[in-house]
Amino acid sequence: MTYKPPNRPPGGAPPAGPAALRRANLSLVLRELRDHTSLSRADVAAATGLHRATVSNLMAELLERRLVREVGVEHVGAVGRPRRAVALHGAHVGALGMEINVDYIAVHGTDLSGRVLVERRIVYDAMGSGPDSSVRRLGLVAKEAVEAMRRAGAAPAGIAVAVPGLVDVARGVVTLAPNLYWHELPLADQLSCVLGPLRVPVRVDNDANLAALAEFTSGVAAGTPYLVYLTGEVGVGGGIILGGELLRGADGFSGEVGHLQVDPHGTQCGCGRIGCWETKVGLAALVRAAMPEQAYGLPGMPVPDPGERVADIARGLASGDQRMTTAVAQVGQWLGLGGSILANLFNPRVIVIGGYFASLAQWLLPHAQDQLQRLMVAAPAAQCRFVASTLGFGAASRGAASMVVSDIIDDPTTIMDSPPRPAPY
Ligand SMILES: [Zn+2]
Fold it and tell me: What 3-state DSSP class applies to 14?
């Protein structure tokens, strides 16, 4: 069972048919409540343009489904009639976000209001395990998370998995994840099979896209309409927000910034090409230069948590280790060079750096920002700065959970099991 993104009417055309119209109106009301702490029915009617009777009818259904709750009485003015206020509820509806990356699996489970129920990161060698084992392990972690969320009173209505690679979102297929050695992997279907009787729909998306959405909604530069997010993992991906919208491209494959060729005479990348940006700034490149004895891919080496590797480097930098200082300065300069290409293309206000980039920001950013200013053609007229994410390695799984919440709000009938009520709409 694949978690299908809701069908939105093309070009904003009105939804066809009474069921579709009602679904759209339920979504409209929920979205309004998501954006406010609480509202009266009259407020909702005013904000949405729907008739008061329609709002009352829709609200009755949402109350019955426990997606909203009464939160007391508001008194408007000295002599105004008391009005019962309503807020988004959905404490029994869960949204599970996951991320699988080269060396870890991350989990972020919330209820419909965004309350965090489960959050963890598990060290896992996805690079060395192959797709079959990785899908099985992902399934086990998902089952544990689903059970923990159910114990907390929220049954997950959907799972979204973030993957570092090209994803055919409509089919739930990972077209190519170079650092995991995955090719044409039907991840949504396979994970659904592993989950079996849990029957929770699964969707798959690119990690940088999901992390960019998390940054845009709840990160350090939240609300910045022109924002580029960079994952700082073994691979480097970009999520590009333009005018407040995620840029996906014709096939959904935009943002593969880690594979911009920056050095034709460089080393081979996981994608098979030479001199890609991530061979200069990915975590494997930094570890190889800063601590070659712990490089990725050495035979017999256990895979440590990426956070531990980065903490080792941070300790070395703090104590003035010369090899590490030189390595981080070089990575910082390459970060600035690649950032300038993105700034010249997209004119973002901020480039949010995530993953390990954020952990080492105090050492990376001076070099990166200098290089960015030097190479950005519109500088100083266009202001663009690097900022460190505060969401850490959990950004993509957090974005995945919020995408499931958005999907539910876009189409609340996906979690409703009884037939819709009759008109009025
Ligand atoms: Zn590459």
Answer: coil
